[in-house]
Automatic annotation (TrEMBL):
Residues 114-123 have a biased composition (Basic and acidic residues). This is PiggyBac transposable element-derived protein domain-containing protein. It comes from the Eukaryota. Residues 1-20, 38-134 are annotated as: Disordered. Residues 38-50 have a biased composition (Acidic residues). The lineage of its organism: Eukaryota, Metazoa, Chordata, Craniata, Vertebrata.
Length: 645
């Protein structure tokens, strides 16, 4: 029989999983199949009785060569066995005959021949993600996701019939919170300086009412609100300037000496009670079907250990706040960023998740199954999508190219899409049919990923052409239309807050945080007020603008402050060793230069002493030009004597 090289017949590739080790008897059978016309003597009684088999299988030793007097057939048998040790590839017949043995010894994840041609398919359940070892692949096919119907109710958690602006504001800022602020401010002032500020709940309302009014009429400097030329009576007559600055510098919402146990983990413990009260007001609002998640900056440029820098933001420096908002701008939940470790401690099963996935899991704790979440490329990853699918929440957002590299291989390049023109769209679907990646070319390629939207149905939109200097009609996929319509909730809230922000110049980050969340409460309450009035059919002219709404809330806060004369005198009494500032008397040349002095009768409960030297009477006349108080006694006119020198 002609000799056939073993590598030619059996193949040159080494089989997987350690197959190819055979005994003499098995090699005999294979050679019998080759040489059907010759009778081959059986050299072994069986594998179980062959001593070389155990040595071959257990330690992988080389098969011993037969003696020199063996015939050529025995030589070829020995060579065939030696070649089979390294080059044998089991045939289909071997697998079929050895199924019972392979099922016992082979691990469960190893597949039979022909089963690895396709990746593992996952169950089509709504919460099931890819199995361990899933080989991701993408294909061009129609996207038909299985979406759970939205299970949230349309009813309001709080009945808001016939509410006034102050009632909407009470959802976020109430008297109990103001009492906490007043008590902590008094306690800390007493501990630090030995004297209490003697503030009250009404004065705290008064302080925030003045701050809101100041944001409606911005001046370059806060002191201008009390100046003679630019004073605003609603502010200057309500609270004295020094009292306002003193309250603002001593404002506290916790007692610093009562350090909480989680101080090391919670960096914002100094303002946590205020933040939690505003957060409670956000959480009682009804959850809609479509929400958006984005970053929000709390502007602050002073010294702060957890200050962030986010480029391309209107206020790039400050504290970062992750916000969940509805499509009409109402904030539903938020989480101030203080590190990924602190965020991971609040999220169950956080191991292996990135920052974007952690934020999504934290902010979607209160949403209903079937909710559609829209976010930007900072949050969109494959792992984040899988986490949301486990909760039956469907994610849509822009995505970076390096996060969907396998999908990018199936999509046309930027050069090809640019040649095809604006409006060109291409999409691929993951093998399990749960993810879709869409690439749309506008001015440049836009990559989007979704578990609920795809390319169809397309529509058209107007885009400006720099080259042709006019608007042109461009085809737009469905995923882009839905994203643009429902992603702007957080941006709308930011824009409303930026119109009349309480921008106080302070070096304390705690004051900046308190003012920010007061602005957030005002913006949220006005958006609720406007939506309720629109749903009730109120005419547009009957709905207050945001500026009018803020002024109305400020007026309500100011009316809650009823300070008696005795309390006001005690609050503004000079401290021991401190003297009132004395107004200097104008020079005689000023007093007698002209007759343009404007007197007014001063209606004072406690008349001041006459400023004319030698007079002991009480003043009743105020000269506006000289800013002095003079008296009119019988037989002597101090006002005339003062101006005649």
């Amino acid at each position: 029989m002609a000799a056939i090289p073993s590598k030619t017949f059996y193949g040159s590739s080494r089989p997987k999983y350690g197959h190819g080790k055979i005994s003499f008897s098995r090699a005999e059978e294979l050679l019998n199949a080759i040489a059907n016309d010759s009778d081959i003597e059986e050299l072994s009684d069986g594998e179980e009785n062959d001593p070389l088999v155990g040595e071959f299988v257990s330690c992988g030793a080389t098969v011993e060569q037969p003696p020199d007097d063996s015939d050529s057939l025995s030589d070829s048998l020995s060579n065939a066995a030696e070649d089979a040790d390294s080059d044998y590839l089991p045939s289909d017949a071997d697998h079929i005959s050895e199924d019972s043995d392979s099922d016992m010894n082979e691990p469960q994840h190893k597949k039979k021949h022909g089963e690895n041609d396709k990746p593992d398919q996952v169950e089509q359940g709504h919460g099931a993600g890819p199995k361990k070892g899933f080989r991701e692949y993408w294909k061009s096919a129609p996207f038909n996701p299985i979406v759970v119907p939205f299970q949230g109710g349309d009813e309001q958690l709080v009945e808001r019939a016939d509410w006034w602006p102050a009632d909407y504001m009470e959802q976020y800022i109430d008297a109990e919170l103001m009492k906490v602020v007043a008590d902590c401010t008094n306690s800390m002032s007493l501990a630090n300086s030995g004297r209490s500020l003697n503030t009250s709940v009404e004065e705290m309302y008064h302080f925030f009412g003045v701050s809101i009014l100041m944001s409606c009429v911005p001046y370059p400097q806060t002191r201008m609100f009390w100046s003679n030329a630019l004073r605003i009576p609603a502010i200057s007559d309500s609270m004295r300037r020094d009292r306002f600055f003193k309250l603002r510098s001593h404002l506290k919402v916790v007692i610093d000496n009562d350090v909480p146990e989680d101080r090391k983990t919670d960096k914002f413990w100094k303002v946590r009670p205020f933040m939690n009260r505003v957060l409670d007001g956000c959480c009682i609002q009804a959850r809609p079907e479509s929400v958006s998640i984005d970053e929000q900056m709390i502007p602050f440029t002073g010294a702060c250990p957890f200050r962030q820098y986010v480029p391309l933001k209107p206020n790039p420096v400050g504290m970062k706040n992750f916000v969940l908002a509805s499509t009409d701008g109402i904030v539903l939940d938020f989480e101030v960023y203080q590190g990924s470790k602190a965020l991971a401690s609040q999220v169950p099963d956080a191991e292996g998740l990135g920052l974007g996935a952690l934020v999504l899991r934290r902010l979607t704790e209160t949403v209903h199954p079937g909710t559609k979440v829209y976010c930007d490329r900072f949050f969109t990853t494959i792992s984040a999508v899988e986490c949301m699918l486990e909760k039956q929440v469907y994610l849509t957002g822009t995505v970076m190219k390096n996060r969907v590299t396998k999908a990018m291989q199936k999509l046309p390049s930027e050069k090809i899409m640019k040649q095809q023109g604006r409006g060109t769209t291409a999409s691929v679907v993951r093998g399990d049919g749960k993810l879709c990646v869409v690439k749309w070319f506008d001015n440049k390629p836009v990559m989007m990923l979704s578990t609920v939207h795809a390319e169809q149905p397309e529509d058209t939109c107007q885009r400006w052409s720099k080259k042709e200097k006019h608007y042109m009609t461009v085809r737009r996929p469905s995923i882009v239309r839905e994203y643009n319509a429902k992603m702007g909730g957080v941006d709308l809230s930011d824009r409303m807050m930026s119109y009349y922000r309480m921008s106080v110049r302070t070096k304390k980050w705690t004051i900046r945080m308190l003012m920010h969340f007061m602005d957030l409460a005002l913006a949220n309450s006005w958006l609720l007020y406007r939506r309720d009035n629109q749903e009730n059919g109120t005419p547009r002219k009957g709905i207050m603008k945001f500026l009018e709404y803020r002024m109305d809330v400020a007026q309500v806060f100011l009316n809650k402050c009823k300070v008696t004369d005795a309390e006001e005198e005690r609050a503004h009494r000079p401290e021991p060793g401190q003297r009132f500032r004395v107004t200097p008397i104008p020079n005689i040349s000023v007093r007698t230069a002209s007759a343009g002095h404007l007197p007014e009768v001063a209606n004072l409960k406690n008349p001041m002493r006459c400023r004319l030297q030698g007079c002991t009477g009480k003043s009743r006349v105020h000269c506006l030009t000289c800013n002095v108080f003079l008296c009119l006694q019988s037989g002597r006119n101090c006002y005339e004597a003062f101006h005649t020198g």
